Amino acid sequence: MGKPRQKTLVLAVGVVVAIMFIASCEEEQNLTDTKLATKKSRLVAVENMQLKKQIEQQERMHANAMKKQKELLNKCLQDKKALEEVSAQTVRNLMDDVLANIIEENAKLQKENEALKAQIEQLEKEFEELKKRVPSEAI
User: Fold this and answer.
1) 1: helix, coil or strand?
2) Which are the contacts of 3, defined by CB distance < 8 A and separation ≥ 6?
3) 3-state DSSP helix/strand/coil percent for the chain, to nearest 5?
4) CA-CA distance, 73 to 34, in Å (whole number)?
5) Looking at residue 139, what is its pLDDT?
6) Cβ-contact 30, 22 below 8 angstroms
7) Following DSSP, what letter does each residue of 42-68 receive, concatenated?
């Protein structure tokens, strides 16, 4: 009976050692999994920080581009306004010149018309006087 008991004892000790070994492996595996998870979370955190920096950089670039576009738009609007003012002044000057020429020409034509009317009136008077001098039969 000593031997089967001994075998049972050895077997029980072997089972206990195996269980301890398995538990130890599981614990080590859990530690390894935890270390991997920690490393992974650190890598994700680093990647997130890099992505945030990239986003901030892109936002700054976008803001600068928008600022430049707004400045360019304002400059274009100012140039447009200046061109409109120059154009309007040019039109006014041309109209003044053309209008002045027309007024001057109109005044000349009015004087000429008055002179022609006076000449017609003078000729009509002369014709009337001729009619009076010449007998009506000769005309």
Assistant:
1) coil
2) none
3) 95, 0, 5
4) 57
5) 53
6) no
7) HHHHHHHHHHHHHHHHHHHHHHHHHHH
* Res. 24: pLDDT tops 70: no
One-letter identity of residue 22? I
CA distance 23 to 32: 14
pLDDT for 82 equals 95
Q: What is the C-alpha end-to-end distance of the chain, expressed in Å?
A: 187
Separation CA 26–CA 24 (nearest Å): 5
Predicted pLDDT at 48: 92
Determine the Cα–Cα distance for residues 12 and 4; give it in Å rounded to an integer. Answer: 12
| pLDDT tens string 63-102 | 999 999 999 999 999 999 999 999 999 989 988 888 888 9
Residues 136, 128: Cα–Cα separation, whole Å: 12
- Cβ–Cβ < 8 Å for 131, 139: yes
Q: How far is CA 34 from CA 82, 90, 125, in A?
A: 71, 82, 132
pTM above 0.70, yes or no: no
